[in-house]
Design brief:
Layout (H helix, E strand, L loop, with lengths): L1 E7 L5 E8 L4 E7 L3 H17 L11 E5 L6 E2 L5 E4 L10 H15 L19
Parallel strand pairs: 3-4, 4-6
Antiparallel strand pairs: 1-2, 2-3, 5-6
Amino acid sequence: MGKVAHYRDVTNLECDAVVHLRDGNYSLVEIKIGGDNLINEGAESLKKLRDKIDTTKMKKPSFLMVLIGIGEITYRRADGVYVVPIGCLKDLVICRGLQTFVLRKLLRLSQQFEDPSVGTGIFQRESRS
């Protein structure tokens, strides 16, 4: 098992989830609803953070991942960043804490949509009367 933490530095560079394992390995995860622009934004942020890490003092991240709320296919981008739909994590014991964290973040993100035509299924806003 491991721990999940959030990272933000003084320049406002942030990472939604840093997943630390007991063996010292860790990964950097950005959480996005989906869509090419948001996936690209998340990947760029992860790469920027990865490049700031002083690997003479700590290990480099095991992997970088943009975790998305909508989608069915996991893939690795040309830059090495994984794009993974949340549903693909359902069977991974190591990520249960991450799943709860991710679901809460996705719920907050989905509530930011002003246009009810954006998103589908559980990500649509409920009408307020």
